[in-house]
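Internal QA ticket QA-208
Title: Verify multi-chain structure generation after dependency bump
Assignee: T.L.

Test input:
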Amino acid sequence: MINKFVTDSIPIKIPANAGPRTRMVGKTRPKCVVATLLLFVIPPQLDAGSSKNLPITTAHRVVALDHSTNAAPVGITYLGAGGVVIERAGHAIMGAPFFSNPVLLRVALPFPISPRPERIERGFRPVPNLRAILVGHAHYDHLMDLPYLYRKHGLTAEIFGSATTKNILAAVHDDIPPALVTDVGIRNGRPHTVGNMDIIAIPSDHAPHFFCLKLFGGKATGPKPKLPRTAWGWKEGQTYAFLLTIKDPAVPDSSIRIFYQDAASAVPAEFFQSPPYENLRVDIAILCVPGFNYISGYPEDIIHALQPRHVILIHWEDFFRRLPSKAKNLRSVPLTNVNRFIYRMLTKLPADAGWTLPAPSATIHFDLLPLP
Ligand SMILES: [Zn+2]
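Actual output:
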C-alpha cells in the first residue's frame, strides 16, 4: 500500500514567504567577483559535458511500483529542460514545456530571444486531454514557449504559476486568456483540483546559475503590455515546487503522489515539517539537476524528506543548443557533473527505490500493482 502515511488533500497553511532560503556552498563574496568575470570569458560550449558514461533511458522504460491493488498506470514523458508530461487514467498534466534552446551567449549578454517554431514542433507532441500546465518559475526556459504553443496548437489547459508568470502572460491575453492562468500564491497551500489531480504549490527557491550568481531575479509586479525581449526580462518571480496527487477514478485508494520541481532548491522545510506531510513518502520525485553543486545538501536533503520510490532527473542536458537527433550525442548542461549528482542522490535514496535519467522524449511507464 503506498501513501499510507498521508490522507488525501488536507489543506496546509503556508506563509507567503515560506520558501526555503537556499544555502549556497562556500564563501560567496570572492567567488561572486570571480564568477562574474568568468561568466563572460569562458566559452560555454566547451564546458558542456559528454553524456557518454551516463546511464540514459533513451526511449521507453517500464517500472513496477507496489500498490494495494491493480490501478491505472502512470506515464511520465520527459520533454527536455524542465518539461514533463504526466498521464494517468485519461488525464494529463504538463510541466514547463521548453524547446527553443537559444545559445548561452545570446541568453547572457543579452540579445533578443524568441520561440523557435522548428525546434518546438520537433519536440512538442499534442497531448490528449491536457488539463493543466505547471510553471515553477517564470524564467525564459520555463515560460517563453507557452504563448506559441497556445496560439499554434490551441491549448486550453489551465496554467498554474506565480504572480510574475500571470503578469508576464497578460501580454498575450488573446492567445492565453487571463482566466486560464492561476496565481498559485493566492491558494496558500490549499490544493487546486483539476480532473483527477490535486495540485499543491509549495513555495520553493532557485539555485544560483553559476557559483553564487543567480541571474534573472526579481518579479513582474503588474500585468505586462509586451513579452520580454531578452532572457533578463523573464524574471524568476516566486519559485514553486508542486506536490501532485493523481487518482484512478475507477479504483478507490488509488492515489499516487508525485513531487515535481523545475529548479534545484533547498528543501521547503516548513512544508515538509508540517502535518500531514511530515512523514510523507512520495511515489515519484522529479528533481532538477543543474545548480545542485551550488546548494548545500542538495539533492541529499530533498531525497531524505521525500523518501521517493522512484526519482526522475530532469533539466540535465545542455539546453543551450539544438538537441541532437541521437541521444548518445546529448551533452550535459555546462558546468554540471551529472554523475556527481547521481552519486550524492544514491547516498540517501531508499533501498527499495529506483531512478531514471531520461533523454528528451523518453517515457517511463509506471505499472501499479501488488508486488509479490
Ligand atoms: Zn530558472
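Spot checks passed. Residues 99 and 249 are 33 Å apart (CA to CA).
Status: verified.
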